[in-house]
Amino acid sequence: MIKVEGVLNKRSQAGPTDSISIEELDCSRMGLSSKLPLIFYPTFDKEGCNLSIIVPSLGIDVFAKTHAELVSELEEVLPVLWDEYAKADSTLLTRPAQKLKTALLQTFSETTFA
Predict the structure, then answer these.
(1) How many CA atoms lie within 13 A of 98 on its CB side?
(2) CA distances from residue 25 to 31, 46, 69, 88, 97 in whole angstroms, order as listed
(3) What is the C-alpha to C-alpha distance for residues 79 and 24, in angstroms, rounded to an integer?
(4) What is the share, in percent, of the chain residues with pLDDT greater than 70?
(5) Which residue of 5, 58, 107, 111 is 20 to 30 Å from 80, comparing CA positions?
């Protein structure tokens, strides 16, 4: 579940103080649970048109025009990062990719659905 906290403005857009926290993320074939409290604080880009969440240590770099779209982007990118890095053979990864794998494994655990 991605939990959205904060108050949206009249255009359903978040401000920089609105936060997004992740406890569980359910995908079609598996779920991810956060081992640590994860709270992201979206910021606006330089032009003030898009919200973004950038967390290099977890490979997260998402942006969107609305808070809801930003949550959707997170829901899409996290399973991809998990599949591409956390589940990958470490010997096939570059050193930066190995660091990303380690960070993902320290942050999330996987639950497989039957």
Answers:
(1) 7
(2) 5, 30, 16, 20, 22
(3) 12
(4) 74
(5) 5
- Report the distance separating Cα 97 and Cα 42, nearest Å: 24
Q: How far apart are CA 33 and CA 55, in angstroms?
A: 18
pLDDT tens profile 27-82 = 655 788 888 778 888 888 888 788 899 999 999 999 998 888 888 898 889 989 99
Alpha helix (H) residue ranges in 6-109? 67-81, 95-107
Q: Which residue has the tokens 């920089």?
A: 16
Exposure of 32 in the CB half-sphere (CA atoms within 13 A):
24
Q: Phi and psi dihedrals of 84, rounded to 5?
A: -80, -30
Q: Which of 45, 48, 75 is nearest to 60 (CA)?
A: 75
